[in-house]
Structures are given as structure tokens and as C-alpha cells.
């Protein structure tokens, strides 16, 4: 009953893994490894449910018996990749990117297209920590943001470690962390 | 691996169970029984994640090892009841009612307040079958709708049987049922 | 500059007018008259932007030089009827019904299909007053709700008078009514 | 009737102007000038409705008799700045950023925080042209995107000229441009 226990626990971390579809180079392998590590750590993985990085992270997490939620842009649950264990068909199109960010404690961005960039930006705007693995760099007037708002990781192991640490710190800091309805 | 198998299966039915918080009279007992029966049938239960009928159906489904998704109106996952196995914190308020309806194959309405009525209406508007157990009756100009767009059930067993039947018929009738991306 | 003045005023009433597309019998004529009266009163009319009652109310309001906002379900502004003065293309499908309700001070339901019913229900759930003109009647266990949560009107004039009265009362009762950021 | 004519016309351009609140340096003056020019060109201005760049563009557009729509994150219309001529209170929080992008033909980003970055990203993802005035620069692996997906402008005049040009080209290219329901 161990896995079910953690699945029911309202305090287990929820981590979004964002990235492009299709994905190239190391991104799918990195994402799959991230998925495995997150599942092993008892985290719920949230993703956009499509292919590329989203499919790779889902495959990794599902292979370790983890929970992988796909928050889909379309209105048909079947549009999601085959590894998802829970499918939410939103019909919201790209608005669903904000939902992915909203329900998690931290975001891991693996590589990334413009959809990923929107998720990174929404997370930074709303105070959700972002860990990046070969992802976007942000600058204005020719100068990189300093300090960098994205925590950079060099490996899947580093990305998962940082995401879980930041998710834990954020949860502890929330004033209502000891109470709540649920 | 039996339960995990059905959880991964994109074709297992998703059934929303809607009802008021707080709930009175028979509604909590009915909802809990509905939750048990849906979990036993391998369906994913979707609800609004709060108390009353939503908590009762979650308790029933979770006690049988089922998957219960709470699509919460607020932005904090912890606001959901303790029986949920997956929590989506939307921050959408009552707009989340439409998301609940959108991701399922059928809706079971148990008793009901105005939130439930909105879910029933959105389901009927978008062609999602609705099964009612002691729920709203609709009329215009003093005459009940004929035929009644809500399939009435007298017991939890009847409600679940009808919902699964209607969900199956709907899935089979969708033109894309044999293909799809996922 | 009189009309522009009221358009800029954050405190002018916003009234949603909801109803079916297509509409039959008296509904289009009633809706058009409601639109004229609301525009004459300086209210901003909000509707779903399509045909039937939505087109009739837009025509009435636009003919009197009023502002008519269409909150459209699709992602293309051009799907709205020709009388709208402002078009918001949401791409949200029926989720947009909740947005219509959220931004107004009162709802007038003229006749009605299931979409209208969802708007009535969401308004009642969130405390937005609802005035009905030949619209839905709600009952449970064979008994009509008592008191009726919908304020019934017999004529367009009565519907507009009640909606403006209820909108005004609601605005005055809001604790922040004298301050606010804007 | 000139201004009303263009307001009713479904084909007048809708341009979003995005930027931070608070705004510093040249951003407010630039935004106000952008607002004036857009109103003079008969465009409908869409913004997030708050302060900073959003307030400055609204002031500029309203001073020229233009239409300025504020799509607000909160559920109270009065949270918008005083220059808005139409207020949509969404209660969606940062999800409303995607609505701003969805309803327009082009986006002008003036300076920018993370909210602006999310709007730029969502526009680029969904094919809505983006014109930048002292806004974000995007790079990966230490190299700026080439070609730059953001059309850079050096002045408010240049930004408005490019946005109107791109909006017009986009509208003409849409296959349904000659038909449509509205």
C-alpha cells in the first residue's frame, strides 16, 4: 500500500515537467530519466500530455509505477500519450499551460519551445520555482537577468534534486501549511 | 498490476459525480456507494474535490483503491478533501465546473445545489450524458421537459449502471474512437 | 461626450442577457427590446455573441448607441454577430458562459436552452442576481424552489427595471464599493 | 457616426499592448503614445487593465476617444484602471494573459516583466505576431534565436506601424477571411 499511501497524501510534491513536442537531441532521454527519478521520489508528475518531452517524462514515470497527469489542450482524453495515468481534457488550448503551472510546487523545463517559455514565465510570475535543463535564457537590453531566475541544472539528477528541494521549501513557507481543509 | 493497467488505459471510463457541499439526507451515503461501485468497475472518478457529496464519493472510491481526481476551484491543492488521489488546483472558481464536465464521459448528479445544476446544464449543452439521483427537475412555462434529458435512477446501483452504459455508448459513437494520437 | 463618459465609468452597470440560438416565438423581440432599454439606461450589455437572443439583444443595444460585448466561445472574433461593438474571442467553448456571468452585476435570461440554464445556475451559485423572462423553472422532488431564486418579469420593461435595481443594490452592498484600485 | 462605425466593424484590428506594472523609465511614455496612435488608427486596444504600462496605454487610447478593453485578473471590474472603456473581470488570475493574446491580431510588448514574457511566449506559440519595444530577448545555449521571432521597433510609431501591418497580413491570410458567421 506504500504507493497508494503517497498518492493519497495531499502533501506529496507535484512537479511539472515541460518541454517541446517534438523534442530533439538529449531532451527525450533527459525527460525520461527525470520522470523515473520523480516517480521514485513519490512525486506526482504533471505535464501537457502530448508527445516529445511530455511523452518521455510520462514513460519514465509510468515505468516506475508513478502517477503522471496529462493536462491536455484538447477536449478529447484520447489525444494524450499512452503513458499518462490520469488525463484531464481541458479544451482550453494553450490556456492549459497556466493550469499546469498552477497545480504544481515546482517546474522542470527540459529544452523548450514557446509553449515551454510560457510555462516558465507563468511560473516565475506566480512564484513557482523553475529548474532548467538546457532551456531558455532570458535577457533584456543585451544583458542576462542577474540573478538568473531559473535554477540551472546540468543533469536529470540535479534537476530533480533541485526541484524537490525548492518544492519542499515552498510548501513549508506557506502560512497555511499546517492546516488547510483537506 | 491489474489496477495500474486500467489506470493507464486511455479507454477506461471517466465519470463525474456532482453534488452539494454540505449534503443532507441520503446524499452522502448514496454518493459514497456510487464511488465504491465506480471504483469496482475500473472507472476514474472526477469530482469538485470539496466536502459533502464530493467528499463522500471520494471516500467510497478511494476505499476500493480507485482513482479519484479532485478538480479544485482554488489555487491550493490542500483545499481538497483527504480522500482524493489526484488534485488539480485550478484557481478558476466556478469555471472549474465546466472542466469537470469536459473531461468525463458521463455525469452522475446526486442531489444538488446551483453548482450541480450548472454542471448538469453544461453536460446537457455539450452532449455529455447525465444520470440523476434525487436531483434537479427542469421545466419551462409550467411543463416539465419531455422527454426528460436527465436519465433518472432510483438507487446508486442504477445510477452507476446507467452512467457506464451511456459512457460506453458515447465512446463507441465517436468517429475517432479507433484512432487518436495517444 | 455623454455616451463616452458613461462608457468609461467603472460604476456603470454591466448586465448579461442570455438566451438560446436559435430563438423562437417572442424571445427575439423581447431580447431586442431589452437591449434598447439597457442601452438607453447607460448599461453595458454582455452576451455570448452568437445568434438568436444574443444577436437580438446586440441589435437592440447597438441601435441605441450602446456598448455590447460579445464573449465568444471560439477563437475567431469574426464568429460574432454583426451588432457587437466589442468582441472577445475566448476559445473556451462553453467555459465562456462562466466568464459572462463573472463580469456582470445581473443576468437577464430570455427564454433559454441548456447554455442559458448553465449561466442562470452559475449566477445563482456566485450571488449574481437573475431576472427571468419566460425562462427555466427549477424544482426538486416535484416541488418548485420556494422562494424562487429567479426574479420573474412579465415584460422587457419589467426585466430591465428589476435587473438595474438588483445590480445597483449589489454594487452598493459590496464592502469595497467606495474604494478600489481603478 | 465615424467612430461607432469602426467600433462595430468586426474587421477593425484588435491589438494587445502588454507591459509591466509598475513600469519605469521610458515605458509609460512609450505606452501612452502607442495607445494614442492605435486609437487614431481605429484599432481596439486590449490590455490587462492594471497599472504601469497597462494604465498608460489605456490613458493614451481613451484620450483619443478609442476603445480600450481591460481583461482583468480579478473578479471585480473596479480593480481596473480608470481609463478603460470596457472591463472584463475574469477571476482567472494569470490565466487571463492567454485570453488577452487570443482575442487580438498582434501584440506590442513594451518593456516587460514575467507576465509580459508569458504573453509574448503564448503569442509566438499560437502564431500571433509580436512587436517589441525594449522588451525581452530570447536565447538558448548562449545564442540568440535567429531569426528573432519578435519584430523589434525603436519607437512607438514604429511599433504601431509594424503591429498594424502584421495584423492586416494575418487577417488576410486566414482562409475564412471572406466568410465567417459575423
Please report the distance between the alpha carbons of the first and last residues of chain A: 21 Å
Query: Largest interface, counted with CB-CB under 8 A?
Result: A-B, 40 and 40 residues
Mean pLDDT of chain A: 90
Oligomer: homotetramer
Q: Low-confidence spans of chain A: pLDDT under 50, at least 5 residues? A: 1-8, 176-182
Q: How much strand of chain A?
A: 15-25%
Strand order of the largest sheet of chain A: 4-3-2-1-5-6-9
How many beta strands in the DSSP annotation of chain A?
Answer: 9
**What does the main sheet of chain A amount to?**
7 strands, parallel
Radius of gyration of chain A: 15 Å
Shape of chain A: globular
Classification by helices and strands of chain A: alpha/beta
Report helical residue fraction of chain A.
Answer: 25-40%
H/E element sequence of chain A: HEHEHEEHEHEEEEH
H/I helix tally of chain A: 6
Task: Summarize the structure in short.
Four copies of one chain form a homotetramer. Helices cover 38% and strands 20% of the residues of chain A.
3D structure, described in words:
- The structure is a homotetramer of 182-residue chains.
- In chain A, the strands form two sheets. In chain A, strands 4-3-2-1-5-6-9 form a seven-stranded parallel beta sheet, with helices on both faces. A two-stranded antiparallel sheet of chain A has the order 7-8.
- Chain A has 182 residues and is of the alpha/beta class.
- Chain A starts with a helix and ends in a 9-residue tail after the last helix.
- The first copy, chain A, is built from six helices and nine strands, in the order H-E-H-E-H-E-E-H-E-H-E-E-E-E-H.
- Chain A has helices at 2-8, 27-40, 53-63, 96-102, 114-126, 156-173, and strands at 14-18, 44-47, 68-72, 86-89, 106-110, 130-133, 136-140, 143-144, 151-152.
- Chains in contact: A-B, A-C, A-D, B-C, B-D, C-D.
- The A-B interface holds A 4, 7-8, 10-11, 14, 44, 49-51, 62, 65, 67, 69, 71, 75-91, 99, 102-103, 174, 176, 180-182 and B 4, 7-8, 10-11, 14, 44, 50-51, 62, 65, 67, 69, 71, 75-91, 99, 102-103, 174, 176-177, 180-182.
Amino acid at each position: 500500500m506504500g504507493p497508494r499511501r503517497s498518492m493519497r497524501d495531499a502533501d506529496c510534491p507535484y512537479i511539472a515537467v515541460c518541454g517541446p513536442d517534438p523534442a530533439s537531441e538529449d531532451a527525450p532521454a533527459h525527460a525520461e530519466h527525470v520522470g523515473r527519478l520523480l516517480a521514485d521520489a513519490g512525486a506526482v508528475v504533471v505535464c501537457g500530455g502530448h508527445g516529445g518531452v511530455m511523452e518521455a517524462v510520462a514513460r519514465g514515470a509510468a515505468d516506475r509505477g508513478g502517477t503522471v497527469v496529462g493536462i491536455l489542450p484538447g477536449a478529447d482524453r484520447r489525444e494524450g500519450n499512452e503513458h499518462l495515468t490520469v488525463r484531464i481534457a481541458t479544451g482550453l488550448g494553450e490556456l492549459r499551460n497556466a493550469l499546469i503551472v498552477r497545480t504544481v510546487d515546482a517546474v522542470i523545463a527540459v529544452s523548450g519551445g514557446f509553449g515551454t517559455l510560457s510555462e516558465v514565465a507563468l511560473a516565475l510570475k506566480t512564484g513557482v520555482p523553475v529548474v532548467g535543463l538546457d532551456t531558455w535564457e532570458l535577457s533584456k537590453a543585451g544583458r542576462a537577468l542577474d540573478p538568473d531566475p531559473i535554477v540551472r541544472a546540468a543533469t536529470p539528477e540535479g534537476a530533480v534534486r533541485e526541484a524537490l528541494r525548492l518544492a519542499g521549501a515552498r510548501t513549508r513557507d506557506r502560512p497555511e501549511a499546517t492546516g488547510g481543509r483537506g
